[in-house]
Every structure is written in C-alpha cells, then in structure tokens.
Amino acid sequence: MAMGAQLSYTCAPYLLASAPKAHEQIVWAESNAVVYANSVLAARTLKYPDYLDICIALTGRAPFIGAHRDQGRFATLRIDVKPLDSLDDAFWPLLGYHVGLLCGSEIPLLCGLENTAPSRDDLKAFCAAFATTSAAPMFHISQITPEAMRESQALGGLPPSRHLTIEPADLLASWYELDHAEASQVDLISLGNPHFSLSECAALAALCSGRRKHPDVTMAVTLGRAVYDDASAAGYITTLERFGAQLINDTCWCMLGEPVVPPTARTLMTNSGKYAHYAPGLVGRQVHFGNLAECVETACSGEASGRLPTWLTAVATRQGAH
C-alpha cells in the first residue's frame, strides 16, 4: 500500500472501474482474470507468477513474449460447437471446462456460437472454467470476442493445426464430471468463484426475493468490496441477507475452508465450473453443479433435484435409449 497500490482484494479486477482497455499492456496473475482480460477485453497479459508481478510493478517492464505480442494471440486450434437450444447460464462454465480439456496450451477459436449472445457474466464463467483446465492465456469465439470478428483475424491468416468438434454428448460427459455428488442432500451453496458481479447480485436477489433458505443449508457468496458497495446501494444485499445468504468480501472460495464451509457439511452445490472442479480437493466435499436458479431452489429445499438442463435432457434421453 505504501508503494501506491490500490486496495481491491478481488479475483475479478475486470469488474472494477480501473479495468484495462483493448490493446493495453497489463500484468495480472489470477488465471480467470488473465483469460478474461486477453479474450473479452482484448488487453494483453500472460499468467504471471506471484512476486514476478511485483517486480514488474516496480520496474514497469515485462517480457515482450506470448500474448503481449500480436503473434502470440492467434488461435492454432479450431473447435466447432454443435448448436443446442434453450441455453441457460450453466452452459458457459460447462463449455469452458470442456474446451480447456481439449486444447491444453493451444489458443482455440470456437465456431458455431455466433447466435448465442453471451453476457459478460456468461463469458466470465467460461473464462474461469477454461482457465481451470487449460494452460492457454486466452481463447477466441467467432463474432463474439473482439479479436475474432473474422475467422482469419483470430487465426492470423493461417489454417488451424487441428480441427475438433464438440458434440452435445461430449458436454453431457463433462456435466457428470462436475455434478458428481452421490447424496441429494446439500449443506452449502457456494457462489462467487470468480467474485460476483453487480449484475449477478441483481439476478440472485431477484431469485431470492420474498423467500427464505432452508435452515440447514448455508449459502455464501464471495464478492469484491467495490461490487458489494454498489450492490448494497442498489438494495441487493438487503434482499440476500433476508433470504439468509452470507456475503463475504476480500477473499474467495479458492482460499476458504472451515468454518465458512460448515464442518458438518458433506455436499455442496455451485454454479461455478471452476469451483466444481477444485472443491473436492480444496475442502474434501462432494459437489453438485447447476445454474443459478437451481442453486437457489436447492438452498430452499436442501435437496438437489438432479435435473439436467433442458439443453442436455434430450442427449441423456437418447443415450438412455441406447
């Protein structure tokens, strides 16, 4: 702080007023933020390790390599996504998780999503899950992310070295990797990995308004202090606290354990592909995965419904028939 740093304490610095602009050279370390900055904001950074980022802050100099340069931002892998109908907010973290498994350290170009119109929150969820399973610093989505308005732009005018296709059945397999808890009873609803945005607070407050969570279920939401202040001014925090939610600033689920995770809890539910992947190792609990509305319904009932989203139901039905 004495160096002149600003206190933000958030894993989603792209939600702050200081978010970088397109082509701006920055140095970030948190993996979801790096991928979001490069892919969604078109800023330029690598995934920097702790302490090297401090050295760069002191000197104002970073290695001119990788995604800092035009040549290091082109896709080398094309992935076609077969279309699905009636998508909800669980689609994007699931897709990010699956795409990351496919591409390793290669930067992918995703095609077939041109008409899906993802929100910034959808892309945030995609980035976090993608960064969980991939070493790549960024991705492109045709006609959605700023450096992929044309396929040739994202590919740097060269043909891709590989060309893959994601079938709905592939996404169903990844769904079961994330939604794997054996018991239907849920003790904890974990939200905010990465930190909630103001629009996510608004969406959650709308789902929780006039309702009350089950007394045996803990719901905790992590978010940055700047977003918390804005959400409080908008009345969302009051609504969420009346529902029974716990709001936590200045840390997130990658750092949290007991007692925020109740010692007696055996199963949690989250809408985060990132946390669904990490939670078993971090806190030793089994995980249910679902969209935000399912998380609220589960918070009220104490039981995960086990329902698949409508866009995967037909796939599961066909597999069952076989």
Quick structural summary:
This protein has 322 residues and is α/β, with parallel strands linked by helices. The protein has helices spanning 31-39, 52-59, 91-103, 120-133, 151-155, 168-178, 198-208, 225-233, 236-243, 273-283, 292-301, 310-321; strands at 77-81, 108-111, 140-141, 162-166, 188-191, 218-223, 246-249, 267-270, 286-289. It has 2 domains: 8-167, no CATH class; 178-311, Aconitase, domain 3, CATH 3.30.499.10.
What this model shows, in words?
- The protein has 2 domains: 8-167, no CATH class; 178-311, Aconitase, domain 3 (2-Layer Sandwich).
- The chain is 38% helix and 12% strand.
- Helix 3 packs parallel to helix 4 (120-133) and helix 4 (120-133) packs across helix 10 (273-283).
- By secondary structure, the protein is an alpha/beta fold.
- 44% of the residues are buried.
- Helix 7 (198-208) links the parallel strand 5 and strand 6.
- It is built from 12 helices and 9 strands.
- Strands 7-6-5-8-9 form a 5-stranded parallel sheet, sandwiched between helices. Strands 3-2-1-4 form a 4-stranded parallel sheet.
Give the proportion of residues in helices.
25-40%
- The SSE order reads HHEHEHEHEHEHEHHEEHEHH
| Count of domain modules | 2
Shape assignment: globular
**Helix-strand makeup class:** alpha/beta
Total helices: the number is 12
- What is the first-to-last residue Cα distance? 61 Å
**Quantity of strands, as a count:** 9
Q: In what order do the strands lie side by side in the largest sheet?
A: 7-6-5-8-9
Mean pLDDT rating = 96
Approximate strand percentage: 5-15%
**What is the radius of gyration?**
20 Å
The largest sheet, given as strand count, sense and whether it forms a barrel, is: 5 strands, parallel
Uncertain ranges: none
Organism: Vreelandella olivaria
Pfam family, one: AcnX
Protein name: Phosphomevalonate dehydratase large subunit-like domain-containing protein
Keywords: Iron, Lyase
